[in-house]
Amino acid sequence: MKRQATVQVAVALLWALAFPCLVQGQQRPAGKTPEGMVLVPAGRYTPLFRAEKDPKDFPVSAFFLDVLPVTNGDYLMFIRANPKWRRSTMKRLFADGDYLQSWAGDMEPGPKAANNAPVTHLSWFAAKAYCAWKGKRLPTTAEWEYAAAAGLTRADGENDPEFVRQVRSWYATPAPETLPEVGRSRTNFFGVHDLHGLTWEWAADFNTAMVTGDARGDTGLERQLFCGSGSEGAKDTGNFPAFMRYGFRSSLKASYTVHNLGFRGARSVDEQGK
Fold first, then answer.
1. pLDDT tens digits for range 39-74
2. For the whole prediction, is pTM greater than 0.90?
3. Model confidence over 234-269: pLDDT tens digits?
4. CA 134, 135, 136, 137 torsion: positive or negative?
5. Most exposed: 106, 140, 221, 254, by fewest CB within 10 Å?
6. Exposed, middle or buried: residue 234 (CB in 10 Å: 0-12, 13-18, 19+)?
7. What are the residues whose beta carbons fall under 8 Å from the beta carbon of 186, sequence distance 6 or more?
8. Are 47 and 60 in contact (CB under 8 A)?
9. Domains of the chain, earliest start first
C-alpha cells in the first residue's frame, strides 16, 4: 500500500510540473510577439461572396498583425534606406503619377502628411516592399477581414451595436484632406487600432475579389459576380461596409495610389524568429 501511494504521489507531482507547460503550449505559439504587433488567434473567415461550389467559410491560421498602420515617419525611414522608392525616382511601372503626392518632397512629408499620420498615396508594390524590408508581409484579405470583423469588446463585431454604428458612420463620411494621426481610436477586441475609421488598407491578394474558391489555388473568375445577381450569393446583404471594401478592392491595380489608402504589416506565426 505504501509503495502504491508513493507511486501515485510521484505521478501527481510530475503531472503538476508538466501541466502548466502543456497549457501554455496550447494557449499561444512559441516565441514572443514581435514589437508593435499583436497575435490574432486562429478563426474562420466567411467571404462576402462565394460560388455555390465553395464552402461557407475558410480557416484563418493565427498570425501577427501591426497594431497601427504604417505612418509617414515610418515610410520616411524606409526611403532613406531604399532610395529607389523616392518619389522623384519612382518608376511608373510600380506606382502611378500620384505616388506620395501629399508629401512636400522626396525626403520631407511636410504639413499635409504629419509624421504620425498614416502614409497614403502609395502603391501595392511600395507597401509590399516596405513590409519585406521590415521582415513582414501584407495581410491577406481573409486575415484583414477576419481581424477587422472584431468589435470593441467581442470577436464577433456584428453583434456589437456600437461597433457597427461607428463603422457604418465612417464609410458614409468623406475622407478629410489631411488625415489625423494613428492610434487615436479604441483598439478592437484583438488589440488593433484603426482598421476602420482612418484609411482603406492594401491586402496582399486585393486582386482576387472576383476569384472563386480559396484564392491560394483558384484563379477562375466567377462571371456571375459582375452582374446584379451576384448579390444573391452575399452572406449579408445588409453589410454596407463589406460591399464598399469589396467594390473598392475590385477597382484597384497594383500601381494605383489613392489619397486615403494605406497599409499595415503582418507576419505568419511560423515566420517568427526567422
1. 999 999 888 766 667 777 889 999 999 999 999 999
2. no
3. 455 556 677 788 889 989 999 999 999 999 999 999
4. positive
5. 221
6. middle
7. 152, 193
8. no
9. 31-271 (3.90.1580.10)
